[in-house]
Amino acid sequence: MEEGSNPKWEGKATANLVGSTPEQVWPLLEDFCNLNKYLTTLDTCYRVEGELGKPGLIRYCGATVPSPSGGDEKLTLWCHEKLLAMDPIGRLMTYVVLDNNMGFKSYESTIKLLPIDGDDEPGCRIEWSFVTDPVEGNTQEDLVNYLNSSVRTMAMNMENALKSLWKEIRKEKIPLVDNVDASFLGRICGCYSFDYFKVLLVLM
């Protein structure tokens, strides 16, 4: 290491989802361009270019925060993020931050979905890790704290989304995928923005 150079910052955060298996949660997590559905601190998240679920996919993420100058002024923090890898079998994805106004010069993150063993009730764990160059105006602890808050928010919202979906399925008394009513299917897909069939098959 060159004298005076700064070491990389690394960190990791985890959150558990109780009552949901990795097979049930993965369709939500792999929805790369709808992160704001579950990470609700984001105002928006959408596809910029690339094929959904494929390496090279780029998304835009934006969040409105109070301006450092104070008062009623607001500031939009934004970044473009590029998907490097998506592994539906290992249930993990890796992405990097590209253009941004948040001070990131080199940031890579991996999100994994892991089973929780040894419990009577099914469950899984989201593990979110990062490696980055030091970010001016922040500390490594700041980033880890943000990651902890973010992954807990995601886990809670994903858990609630799956519970709501399961209630809808029970209410409609759907016996088989082949018999799903088209209007119901459209309503569910519109509400949750993920592949309904994948989740339905592992719930039944």
From TrEMBL:
Pfam families per UniProt: Polyketide_cyc2 (PF10604)
UniProt xrefs under Gene3D superfamilies: 3.30.530.20
SUPFAM superfamilies the UniProt entry points to: Bet v1-like (SSF55961)
GO molecular function, one term: protein phosphatase inhibitor activity
Record-linked PANTHER family: LACHRYMATORY-FACTOR SYNTHASE, OS05G0202300 PROTEIN
Listed name of the protein: Lachrymatory-factor synthase
